[in-house]
Write a structure and sequence with these properties.
The chain is an alpha/beta fold and about 280 residues long. The protein is built from 9 helices and 6 strands. The protein is elongated. The protein starts with a helix and ends in a 5-residue tail after the last helix. The N terminus is likely disordered.
């Protein structure tokens, strides 16, 4: 299948990175263990360039769309203070009475999620408890805590609260525009009324455009959360290796990167390391 072929492409890429890393590690180990040997006493002249190139390759993969988006949907969290129209917007976007929308402030006390496809793009919409300070009600406090957790996991937040008070990267939404005295914003991304439907079509189109760009395309390799995590660890270790001057610290950073690659490929590295070390430098002959 296309997905299996894409996964194979990633594995081959990791194999190449790992081979390059073994060569770099062997060069550092040679400096550490055989510093009295003239031909291996210093790191190769292109050592820093090779580490930089490897780091660039990893970054390119880390910027790819994530596999979870296809499975779980693009996660859109609707957030703001109590009674800002979150549940009404949620119901409109999922086209179902999934959340209770009443004029009583703070009706939603838990995070409600609903998967839905818009123009063939999978979304997971989440309606959260109203975010505000001073909470006496324990149940409400738990709702707010869960809302904050939902914000952390969001691919996008639709912010219905005061302008600039939402999380970084949130879309400013001016809601309830059908109501006199509603909260106005100077530069909202969308002005909507979930009640009358005004602006909802444009919001849907914008959401589809953003989510489509974030989704893996058919046949493209996309990383799972676990692969992304291991690759991030490897990149971080390479960054450390490029910052250090002490061969001992460089060797340790490269070892950590190798551990991540091995986990991605499901193998151990000690024997390969020794083979690379003794194969490249005719030590002991």
């Amino acid at each position: 299948s296309a997905m299996a072929m894409a996964g194979g492409a990633f594995s081959r890429e990791v194999e190449l990175w790992r081979d390059e890393l073994l060569g770099l590690s062997a060069a550092v180990e040679a400096v550490l263990d055989f510093a009295d040997e003239d031909d291996v006493a210093t790191l190769p002249a292109d050592f820093a360039v090779r580490i930089g190139a490897l780091g660039t390759d990893l970054r390119a993969w880390l910027e790819r769309p994530r596999a979870e988006l296809l499975k779980e949907g693009f996660r859109v969290v609707i957030a703001g203070p109590p009674n800002a129209g979150k549940s009404t917007l949620f119901n409109t976007l999922v086209e179902a009475e999934a959340a209770i929308a009443t004029p009583i402030a703070g009706t939603t006390r838990d995070v409600l999620t609903r998967p839905v496809a818009i123009a063939g793009v999978p979304f997971l919409f989440a309606d959260t408890a109203g975010l505000h300070d001073a909470v006496d009600d324990v149940v409400e406090a738990i709702g707010i805590e869960r809302a904050m957790e939902a914000l952390d996991r969001a691919d996008l937040v639709l912010w219905l609260g005061p302008e600039g008070a939402g999380p970084p990267g949130a879309w400013e939404i001016e809601g309830q525009i059908d109501r006199p005295g509603h909260l106005t914003k100077t530069a909202p991304r969308h002005r909507i009324s979930a009640k009358t439907g005004q602006g909802i079509g444009a919001l849907r189109v914008d959401l589809v455009e953003l989510a489509s760009g974030a989704m893996p395309r058919p046949g493209d390799a996309a990383l799972s959360e676990r692969q992304h995590e291991l690759l991030s660890e490897a990149r971080s270790a390479l960054d450390q290796a490029s910052e250090h001057h002490d061969p001992l610290l460089i060797a340790e950073a490269l070892r950590l990167a190798r551990v991540s690659f091995d986990a991605l490929l499901g193998r151990t590295a000690t024997e390969d390391m020794l083979d690379a070390l003794f194969g490249r430098f005719c030590i002991g002959k």
